[in-house]
Design a protein that fits this description.
- By secondary structure, the chain is mostly helical.
- It is built from nine helices and five strands.
- The chain has helices at residues 2-20, 28-47, 49-75, 78-100, 110-137, 143-174, 180-186, 191-196, 202-232, and strands at 242-245, 248-251, 282-287, 293-295, 310-315.
- A three-stranded antiparallel beta sheet has the order 4-3-5, with no helix packed on it.
- Helix 2 crosses helix 9 (202-232), helix 4 crosses helix 6 and helix 5 (110-137) packs across helix 9.
- The two termini are 31 Å apart.
- Residues 243-312 have low confidence and may be disordered.
Length: 317
Amino acid sequence: MPSSSLGLGTMQISSGLAYVFPFIQDTQMTWFAIIAVVTVMYMISAMRGLDRGIQVLSRANIGIATTLLLAMLFIGPTTFILNVLITTLGDYFSSLLSMSLNANPYEGYRWTRDWTLFFCATWISWAPFVGLFVASISRGRTIREFVLGALLVPSLLTFIWFAVFGGAAFDLQLNQGYEIAAETANNVSTGLFSVFAHYPASWLLTGVALILLAIFFVTSADSSTLVLAMMTSRGDLTPRHIESSSGVSCSLPWRRSCWPREDSTPSARWRSPRPCPLRSSCLCSVTPSSRPFGMNTPMSGGPPTAPAVKISCLPTR
């Protein structure tokens, strides 16, 4: 399902490019080209890590999204949008329970199947990625900060986002006489750009929206890549090797040292070993001594003494 979300993003980017540039056709070759370019972008971002890659794009994403949101709020029908926000907030909280339990048995199940179940499955499939990613970037935060930053603020911004762009579209449909609903039903991917076409500076709004879609695509993909890399590297928060294949990324195994390097004297003793980060069997070698030894138990402890210069361990599985 994460791949389906990214596929929908690819289709919307392609439709937007074809809408703005007539010489670009919305075909499968365009989709493949977009996927190829974005794949390179998100792999570079993911391999640069959280601070130098994902964080930079995420901050740029927030800045561009806020700019587009404020531009639409003031260019569009501001009063109507604010009224939509207040009304829909009230409708949401008053109808939350009934809407959550409504399966539409008297009207057929098409809406429930095509929208409710589809998006519920999408959110459930994204939950492991988002949960692990948010947990990895929330180290050192309090529970209050986590709830505020991961639940309340994003939910409030989502309400505002839908009210601004949805309110702008409703005003065109209900008050201006434009058939936005019919245009969107004809091609869902171009619905946003159809709305922009009826407001000033439509080309600028469309260009910013395309950039924003591409960055959203990249940040979603590279966060998933990072989480998959952490999973396949046994929980390492900074995986050094990430491999991508058909939008699914995994990390490559690498060497680790189960114990710190010892003094250079042959009579050096073992320090208290730290738990092996691999939490698996290890095959360890002692140098310059020629006494290799094997250990098939989890590395939660070690011999009390052993003459060694350096101890290196490799996982046996």
